[in-house]
Amino acid sequence: MSDNETRLKGVMADILKIDTATIDDETSVDTVEAWDSLRHLNLVLALEAEFDVSFTEEQTVEILNYPLIRIVLEEHGVSLS
Question: pTM score, two decimals?
Fold first, then answer.
C-alpha cells in the first residue's frame, strides 16, 4: 500500500469512525452507517486539506465510495499506486 493510500484510509477512518482495515472497494455511503451528509462534508474538507487539493462541486457530490475517491484524487495528481 502506498503512503498516499495509507493517508487516504487514515482520513476516512478518522472521519467515518471505522477501522482502516475495513476500507476497501465496497466502502461507500451505502455500507458505512456513519457516512451521513455531515460526515461526507467533513470527509471532503479533510481530504482537501490532507492532499492539498480542491474538489469541484461535481466531484464533491460524486465521491460516495472508496474507488471514486481514489479516482478523483488521482485526477488531482495524487498517486495512489
Answer: 0.95
